[in-house]
Amino acid sequence: MSPQKDETPTPGVEAPQEMQAQTSGAADEIPIIDMANPDRSLLVSQMYDACSTWGFFQLVNHGISPELISSFKGAMGDFFALPYDTKVKLKRNANNGEDYCDQVPQYYTKLTRNLARGYFDDELTKRKRDWKEALDVGVPGSRDWRRADSDEGNACLDGYNQMPSADECKGFRDVVEDYFEACAELSNELATLMVLALGESGGEKFLQRMKEEHTSYLRMNYYPPSDAGGAANLHNNSFSTRAASANTLGISPHRDAGFLTILLQDDDCHSLQVARFEDDDHLGDGDCWVTVHPIPGSLTINTGDMAMLCSNGRFRAPLHRVLTDPAKKRYSAPFFFNPPYKELITPFDCCFGEESGSKSINAKCTAECTDIQPLKYHPCLWGYFRALRFAGDLTDLGVEIQTSHFKVGSESDHIEKQKRFMSVIDFEEPFDVEKYRRILE
User: Fold this and answer.
1) Dist CA 352 CA 49 (whole Å)
2) What separation in angstroms does the CA of 377 have from each of 82, 382, 389, 403?
3) Where residue 106 falls among pLDDT bands split at 50, 70, 90?
4) Does the structure show a pLDDT above 90 at 19?
5) What secondary structure does DSSP assign to 208-257, as a single string?
6) Could you tell me what percent of the chain has a pLDDT over 70?
7) CA dist list (Å): 71 to 31, 115, 171, 265
8) Residue 271: which pLDDT band, with cuts at 50, 70 and 90?
């Protein structure tokens, strides 16, 4: 089915007049960008400012219809209301073989191995368990949604999709596919503005590869109330029958690995926080976190690690986290716009150069991007970066890969590990942590 795209400004989501044509509101609120603004040069300027300061912004008049968003929210709620036995049949894993067989032996099949996609309620962020359950759905390996999830042509590094049947969750698949494709189309528009903001003259080829070969996925999240006795708590997962311990987070501080993220937030429970500090890999303290209060009908956008690499560090991939709420449940859906697995991410030529007297050897920078910077990052293979992030989320591999590992001058061994990985990986088969453990550890 084709996504519902709204070509006109969406009623009820226009930015307040005093905040239009700006990239920053109050000191404690993330910027607002209005995609209906006819001044494209202003949009490009706003994009640069937002991505290079906060790394977060709210997007209004984004073009995804309110009807599709409403249908998608309903489908998401229907899925998480399913019995746990139904959801766990779709459980993702990292070839965790015997452990998985012990937990749900009646559902274990060859297909359920090596899957980064599917249902889970046991994810680790910074090696701490999240207070949430989720379902990941990604672009099929065949790029054809009409094929069965288990079709061999749909195999890829992230495995196969696993979605409930029509009998289990009526209309779910069609709505999720439509919303996924609408987010992919919007991501192309946003990525184009980001590349233009950096002044990359050769960006067309990169954008074309992102459009045709992206490896994006959509995550549907449900955060139960942290008080086990709350009336809103469905208790149809493996953890929420017990109250959360003190200082438990919905998701621990982290950065998104891909190029950009489109987040559909909960209108009633505002728990997302973004860090207002530059910290490299340090997690900071509680005094520097700002809560994001979504404008009704808006989408929240943030830049990811790969955008930071492409920009040679000009764009910020910000730390963010999700708090728990003792009484309120929360739904959210981030769409992670990710590069092709084989894409070797390197800083755009326009984003670095050498200073010779008062002139830059690289004179490609736009008015938004004029300061001279040396090359800061080595090339990073997206498939390698993604595989290690996946391994860190699900296993005891002990690897938490960061962009700092690719900094010029760092003593990281990931550059050499990446070379070995590139020589043996097959991106058309699901990633198996155990198969590559010797290379990755």
Assistant:
1) 18
2) 45, 14, 19, 8
3) very low
4) no
5) HHHHHH---EEEEEEE--SSTT-TT----SSSTTSPPPTT-EEEEEE---
6) 79
7) 27, 27, 9, 14
8) very high
Q: According to the per-residue pLDDT averaged within each range, which of 170-174, 349-353, 371-375 is highest?
A: 170-174
On whether the CB atoms of residues 282 and 259 are closer than 8 A, the answer is: no
Tell me how crowded residue 245 is: count the other CB atoms within 10 A of its CB: 8
For residues 240 and 222, the answer to whether their CB atoms sit within 8 Å is no
Which residue type sits at 250?
Answer: G
Tell me the three state secondary structure of residue 182. Answer: helix
- Asked if 192 contacts 73 with a C-beta cutoff of 8 angstroms, the reply is no
Task: Tell me how long the chain is.
Answer: 441
Residue type, position 106, single letter: Q
State residue 102 phi and psi, 5-degree precision. Answer: -65, -35
Structure tokens at 325: 């709420």
CA dihedral 390, 187, 277, 329 (to 10 degrees): -70
b/e sequence 65-87, b meaning 16+ C-beta within 10 Å: beebbebbbebbebbbebeeeeb
Q: What is the 3-state secondary structure (H, E, C) of 389-413?
A: HHHHHHCCCCCCCCHHHHECCCCCC
Q: What is the residue whose two structure tokens read 């010029």?
A: 408
The answer to whether 232 touches 330, Cβ cutoff 8 Å, is no
Closest by CA to 307, choosing from 260, 366, 368, 353, is 260
Spatial distance between the Cα atoms of 340 and 372, rounded to a whole number of angstroms: 29
Count Cβ neighbours within 10 Å for each residue of 329-359 and write b for 16 or more, e otherwise: bbbbbbbbbbbebebebbbbbbbbbeeeeee
Cα(313)–Cα(194) distance, rounded to whole angstroms?
13
The CA distance from 1 to 172, in Å, is 12
3-state secondary structure 67-101: HHHHHHHHHHHHHHCCCHHHHHCCECECCCHHHHH
pLDDT at 166 over 50: yes
Q: Are 221 and 333 in contact (CB under 8 A)?
A: yes
For the chain, how far is it from start to end, CA to CA, in angstroms?
43
Type and span of the H or E element at 43? helix 40-52
Expressed in percent and rounded to 5, the helix, strand and coil fractions of the chain are 30, 20, 50
Please report which helix (H) or strand (E) contains residue 439, including its range.
helix 433-440
- Token digits of residue 183: 């987010």
Cα 169 to Cα 161: distance, rounded to the nearest angstrom? 15
Please state which of the ranges 217-221, 243-247, 259-263 shows the lowest mean pLDDT. Answer: 243-247
